[in-house]
Automatic annotation (TrEMBL):
GO terms for cellular component: transcription factor TFIID complex. One of its GO terms (biological process) is RNA polymerase II preinitiation complex assembly. GO terms for molecular function: protein heterodimerization activity; RNA polymerase II general transcription initiation factor activity. The keyword Transcription applies. Belongs to the TAF11 family. Residues 32-51 are annotated as: Disordered. This is TAFII28-like protein domain-containing protein. Residues 80-205 form the TAFII28-like protein domain. Its main location: nucleus. SUPFAM superfamilies: Histone-fold.
Length: 231
């Protein structure tokens, strides 16, 4: 007996479900492709300024034209970056700027690990590094949450297709169908939910996995040590 999944492997979904699938899985790819290869309008040739009577305007244009290839300063790059933020990016940037790490707590941890007191400037540096680490972990945790939501959507898609295949099989066999379940697909990522502990744990696991390229401490001895570094 043939598997009904093989006969009806091309079961289609409702139009709204197809739009949801496109928006979740394919639309980000199109946006990324567009961002990587933006369409640039053809530059208008305005090199001939002989028909412009305003000498001040011509001088200003020539001054700006001569500065096009000038490298931007760090302050100009920062302002350019901030002005190009979207509303969501600006909110996240402001939240990151407002977030602070308890410097006395960081200094206390460093003192307990090193066995002696560290200067205040070192504590400030360690607090900044801790803030950067927390930002990386939280960003990865949101990525884990997004992958989890997409995985759940894939499971829902497969379940709905199985139900449709079963209905088609019953119709082909002449069986009576009393009720056909109609439930539209939903994407959990449309509603921003707080991170769960398992998201943080998975983000930390991925972070450690991606940054585990350094030698273990037992292999970092050399010279008059046990020489494992050179085996």
């Amino acid at each position: 007996m043939s598997d009904p999944d093989e006969n009806y492997s091309d079961v289609s979904l409702d139009e709204e479900d197809e739009e949801l699938i496109w928006r979740v899985f394919y639309s980000p790819l199109e946006e990324k492709k567009t961002a990587e290869h933006p369409e640039r309008p053809d530059d208008e040739d305005v090199s001939d300024l002989s028909d412009i009577d305003d000498a001040e305007l011509v001088a200003k244009y020539q001054a700006l034209k001569s500065q096009e290839n000038r490298p931007l300063t760090e302050d100009e790059k920062r302002r350019l970056l901030i002005t190009s933020f979207t509303e969501d990016q600006m909110e996240r940037f402001e939240a990151y700027r407002r977030m602070t790490v308890n410097k006395p707590g960081v200094k206390k941890v460093c003192n307990s690990v090193l066995g002696h007191s560290i200067p205040q400037n070192i504590a400030v540096v360690m607090a900044g590094l801790s803030k950067s680490l927390l930002g990386d972990i939280i960003t990865r945790a949101f990525e884990v949450q997004e992958r989890e939501n997409k995985a759940q959507l894939i499971l829902d898609i497969e379940a709905k297709k199985r139900n449709k295949r079963e209905v088609i099989r019953k119709l082909a066999a002449g069986e009576d169908i009393t009720e056909v379940p109609e439930k539209k697909l939903e994407y959990s990522g449309d509603v921003r939910m707080p991170l769960q502990p398992d998201h943080i744990r998975e983000a930390w696991r991925l972070y450690r996995l991606e940054n585990s390229g350094t030698f273990s401490s037992q292999w970092r001895t050399s010279g008059e040590g046990d020489g494992k570094m050179f085996r």
